[in-house]
Amino acid sequence: MGLEDKIRRVTPYTPGEQPKGAGIIKLNTNENPYPPSPMVREALEAAAAGGKTDELRLYPDPAASDLTCAIASAYGLSPEEVFVGVGSDDVLAMSFLTFFNSDIPILFPDITYSFYDVWAELFRIPYEQVPLDDNFEIRAEDYRRENGGIVIANPNAPTGALLRPEEIEEIVRSNPDSVVIVDEAYIDFGGISALPLIRKYENVVVVQTFSKSRSAAGLRIGWAMAGKKLIRYLSDVKYSFNSYTMNRPSIEIGTACVRDGAYFRECCAKIRATRERTAEELRGLGFAMRDSSANFLFVTHPEVPAETIFEELKARGIYVRWWNRPRIRNHLRITIGTDDEMRTLAAALGDILGKTV
Ligand SMILES: *Cc1c(COP(=O)(O)O)cnc(C)c1O
Prior knowledge:
Blueprint: E1 25-26, H1 38-49, H2 52-55, H3 65-74, E2 82-85, H4 87-99, E3 106-109, H5 116-122, E4 127-130, E5 150-153, H6 165-173, E6 180-183, E7 204-209, E8 222-226, H7 228-239, H8 248-259, H9 261-284, E9 288-289, E10 296-300, H10 306-315, E11 318-319, E12 332-335, H11 339-356
Parallel strand pairs: 1-11, 3-4, 5-6, 6-7
Antiparallel strand pairs: 2-8, 7-8, 9-10, 10-12
Bound molecules: pyridoxal-5'-phosphate.
């Protein structure tokens, strides 16, 4: 056995580009165009003024109790039903490691968050990708068969398609012997959360994040909500890996962020309104798309290849997301920015299509 055979080699997840420079319009990683709650600014300023620097010599609270309790209280839960991590990517990775531990393949859609297959490969979890139907919808009945676990993004990414609460419940109910993870990164933009299911079924985990609806991708906070037993198993694995995942400033600022529910709901409403206006405008330019329940649109143009539009937009300083993958290589995923940004986008698209059609 040679050196290379003893090394765990993986094909990593490729995040969207993070271009820097004045005037760039970044619609490629589903960040929120609005700043986080003013309470976050206050917390940051208070931390800087209040001698918090000295506390950095101490390890943080391994349970991140302040943050866990703030999330629990915002969602009417007990702290034992909440697990926090460094972004939902951390929470999802820990959940894969904890809950997907059999030789039976786990199931997730063929078109979904492209981190799922990366974690499955990394942790050597067998998996099967279940094709979306021709409208890019998840069919709940496709998940009624033996499996080692299930992970569903709802709304799904990059399609923006939403399952109704009854459909999620049907998947959870028909799989009592597997853990079903519902990744709700985009739920605040127009869906109904599966959260009530955690008190009804012991096999469901709901994961959410600060990165999209709460305008704080840079903080790196995500969390899981589930029955106490699953949360305990998740914590046991985390403590066996790294006890101090959440740093002191994040815990403090995140706590302030989650307490301002009114602000984030207002931002979500603005984004939904911009999404509907943008959808109408892009349909006027000939783009086809399904309704989106997320903070992005998944669009295709009947005449101009997505790759061409992607490159032309980039040349104009507008970044959107394009994947060279089966079934979706003629689609673009466009994050909803401010009204101004979306007007600039529409004008650029008009210009590009005018030249190429
Ligand atoms: C953005 C996203 C996440 C991860 O977000 P974090 O920034 O790690 O919290 C998880 N799942 C889906 C489907 C996402 O789009």
